[in-house]
## 1
Amino acid sequence: MRGLRTTLTLAGARWLWRRHRRSRESTPVSAGRSGAELLAWGAAAAALGAGASALSERRRARRMNGRVVLVTGGSRGLGLQLAREFGAGGASVVICARGRENLDRAVAELTGRGVEALGVVCDVTDPEAVDSLLDDAVDRFGRLDVVVNSAGIMRVGPQRTLPDDAFVQAMDVMFWGPFHLSRAAMERMRGRGGTIVNVTSIGAYLSVPHLLPYSAAKHAWAALSEGMAAESGGSGVRVVTVVPGLMRTGSHRGVVFSGNPEREYAWFALAAGAPLLSVSAERAARRIVAAAASGRGFLVISPIARIGLAVHGVAPGLTQAGMRLVGRLLPGAPERVEERSGSEAADSRIGRLVGVVAALNERAGRRMNQSSRAEERRRDVDSGKDG
Ligand SMILES: NC(=O)c1ccc[n+]([C@@H]2O[C@H](COP(=O)([O-])OP(=O)(O)OC[C@H]3O[C@@H](n4cnc5c(N)ncnc54)[C@H](OP(=O)(O)O)[C@@H]3O)[C@@H](O)[C@H]2O)c1
């Protein structure tokens, strides 16, 4: 009897132990399964959310039907994509830039898409040219509803290697340009209504090492934009401040690199083309047009920019320490300072390697009407700068 009890107890214990082991073994599997299910549900919800937000952005863009929109820097990059997006919403567009060739190509493309488009050669640093740009827009389309300040330039390199003129130029294009245009547009829109959209940058709020002229000018512009928004209450004019993080516009080819140009080009082009760090120009433009149509006053584009801005808001010392670290990782100022455009730097061995890794931004450049090195060479030859 005792033997039977022992046998039964041992068999029961064995059964319990096996069951426990099986349940322990099966726990991670079932947890994995429910984890996978959760992941699938999460992905489906995210896809639905993204779809719904794209649909509502499209709906808002359609509010632009019949409006007249002026985009500075609309010949290529984000400005061109904004013109396409406003045009797709039914607006007529006026785009301006300094270079005639890209401008003509952009107008031809917009017209081919069925968008009523006018291209005006205009340097935004010239207040008189800016005034006549506004006249041209109203003469051609009879009204002006939205002005987008998107024109921008960039010089990359350690501050020690940059001439004072780099700061003067940055302020001219990205502070005084939007200053004159916004003020003149505001006067014309007062009482009748309108929207001014200022494309600043996350660099306006987080000063990025090796981008000091850009960050300083954008900082001043962001302050101007927010101040204008604060003062415009009751005027019928809305001011939208846009703060993009990195966008894949293909603009790295047109940037001027100083110090050790190839190495500066390498870090910049890699960051600007990294999928997790940057957003597509198409996505950015959709969001900006939706903000212009919906009356939103402040728009931050890209998750990284949102996180950076939030952290800077609560712990500026922390972001400063982060930027100091970034500064230490970037190339130092060499003895012999050189300067090259992005297209030239891209022609080097390291540049070609970077081009393979940053393929997304290279492709974006072709979609965004950015000039290739071959085109630049041809222009240099035509203008007698080469050979
Ligand atoms: N790409 C990014 O990652 C990024 C991130 C944050 C903010 N942003 C901002 O977004 C805007 C667009 O950037 P993007 O990458 O599209 O630049 P982009 O491709 O270099 O385009 C710049 C545009 O501005 C025009 N432009 C430059 N100087 C001008 C002047 N003095 N007068 C009139 N037009 C001028 C250029 O044409 P011409 O050279 O023929 O004049 C071009 O059409 C800029 O304000 C930039 O600072 C860009």
Note: Residues 1-6 have pLDDT under 50 and may be disordered.
## 2
Amino acid sequence: MLSKTAAKRFFVVGTALCFGAFFLLTLDTLARIPAQTNQETMTDAVVRGKHLWDTSNCMGCHTLLGEGAYYAPELTKAYSRRGPDFIAAMLRDPEAMYPGQRRMQNYDFDEGQIEDLVAFLEWVGRMDLNGFPAEPDLGEVSVPVTSTDSSVARRSDRPQVFNQMCIACHALGGQGGAVGPALDGVGGRLDADYIKRWLTDPFAIKPNSLMPKLPLSDATIVELVAFLSQLKD
Ligand code: HEC
Ligand code: HEC
């Protein structure tokens, strides 16, 4: 049994030690923040993007760093998952991206504001969050290879833009979005010239196309056409 004084001393010393430990740990955490957030790379554009993020109430639908509402996708890794061009296209006109099923509103941002928001999301994506959320999987996993032809694309052979933009709406090998048709075997259905014209401007082929005209460079289109044309089965 502890005497009354011993118990009191035990309480006081124990409390002081725990307080000290938490205090030091808090200081340690605060000291790490500048490095973990890459504070020195925080440009004016990032700061303006953050203000737009707050004043536009993006968190009313999205989460960032796990905080916010669960209506729309988590955006912490949106930059590496979708790439800057997709994000910019989404902010420019969500309705054009998902015709007839718009769930995100159009903010009528100007190009400068869009750049700021993209810069903000890029900066957020580079934060060291001790592994949260997991890095988007943009490679490695192979799609079932049904042909003996070794030129059949495995997922790691896909152009990066395919794994960022196209997979948002199209599935390949059973993985990806279902907004557009699955692209397995597309090279057998459509010839290279048609695919090229389709990617350049879907509306030139189909005025009521449900696929948006995406911001793709000529080089990217060449790369995508070569990739899609070899998906024969
Ligand atoms: C009314 C709800 C709502 C608000 C507010 C909203 N979004 Fe969205 N957002 C969505 C939904 C839903 C999607 C998924 C695509 C779809 O179905 O339209 C989306 C998709 C996105 C995407 C693409 C994500 C991906 O992984 O493909 C980005 C980037 C994005 N939003 C950014 C923003 C930003 C930045 C703001 C604030 C300026 C914002 N959103 C405000 C609902 C919203
Ligand atoms: C925002 C959604 C969306 C994105 C992003 C998207 N697509 Fe599409 N895609 C569609 C829809 C919807 C269709 C069907 C269009 C229609 O018939 O109106 C389509 C059709 C196609 C077709 C014709 C398929 C067929 O069997 O006729 C090809 C090829 C294609 N997309 C390739 C791509 C590639 C490559 C990318 C990436 C650069 C891409 N798409 C990005 C929605 C999308």
Note: The chain has a mean pLDDT of 89.
## 3
Amino acid sequence: MGSSKEIMDHAEQALIHTYNRFPVVLDHGDGVFLYDAEGRKYLDFYAGIAVNALGYNVKEFNDAVKAQVDKLVHVSNLFYTEPLANAANKLVKATGLEKVFFTNSGTEAIEGAMKVARKYAFMKDGNNRDHEIIAMNGSFHGRSLGALSVTGNQHYQEAFKPLIDKIVFADFNNTEDVISKMNDNTCAVLLETIQGEGGIYPADPDFLKAVREECSKRAILLILDEIQCGMGRSGKMFAYEHYGILPDIMTTAKALGCGIPVGAFVVGEKACKALVPGDHGSTYGGNPLATAAANAVFDLFEKYNILGNVNEVGDYLGKVLEGLKEKHSCVTDVRGMGLIRGMELSVPVGPVVSKCIERGLLVISAENNVIRFVPPLVIGKEHVDMMAGILDGVLNEV
Ligand SMILES: Cc1ncc(COP(=O)(O)O)c(C=O)c1O
């Protein structure tokens, strides 16, 4: 194997430069630790951006994936497989919704959800010109042209216009603003139950309940994006469970496959018949390898009571972050729930994250002033203490 420097140079020769990667070559992982090409150890508080919920080198997960590799990796959606049937039913049971379509990423799940909304509205009134989707300022839903169209961040959108038409933006957690933008052409309201990339902002309970109610009254579909905050990260399997509501459509990905690419949009009773044969498809979506991974994830979540751990360690993380806020004046806010938390700084976050990484702690940012904590859901309190020790030292220097 080459040195880290050689590997990084080799990669940069051939990769389109869409990422400013950290200067670290990750080689392998174990538990909640990652190791670079020189064998240096890092405590993981980012989980491959909220993906690796079970941590690394998890024997039961690896065995399930390997067994499926040896059996059957892919068949397309022209046939049935048992892993597909099982994973779909597990998702239906976990969400309280009706029907599932598997995708290969979160972005594709958003695309599918948008198509369901448009089709549902088209079936009602035959209009295929004017149906609007209300999305939130500060949101993030992905980079394809459809998902980018509903991502409320000009910086990501600007160079790629024209995007898809009839998207209206409203302020997250502003009930009046969202409701004032609803009209007879509105087919859906799309929001993250906890905004992730936008800076870790949970939906206010009053806001989400009022939007749910108004959507129901007007036959507008409520789409909740749970790609980052779902799959146990908030302390419930899906974050909307904290609010006592159900969406009409929800999107999931990231931790659903714990690193094997798989996503899904899951549709409730109202719109689950909107898509019919010929309306949507994916060659890979829901293939036996991806769905075997998802099945293993659901089974291991239950076996190891992952939600119990998120609640216990998540509460502890919240208290520890509050303590750091009290100690360091550059910390202006801490927020979030479970094991999705943000620490807002009055200074640029980039150098803070870089220093943490140099000291063996992998954290990432959200926006340009928030440190994002989305660790594997199996971390213990001792790992929270270890993280806080490193971060405290770094904050002392800013
Ligand atoms: C809330 C949310 N939606 C959608 C996406 C896009 O998912 P993916 O990168 O798997 O396409 C992300 C990714 O960060 C996300 O956080």
Note: Residues 234 and 338 are 4 Å apart (CA to CA).
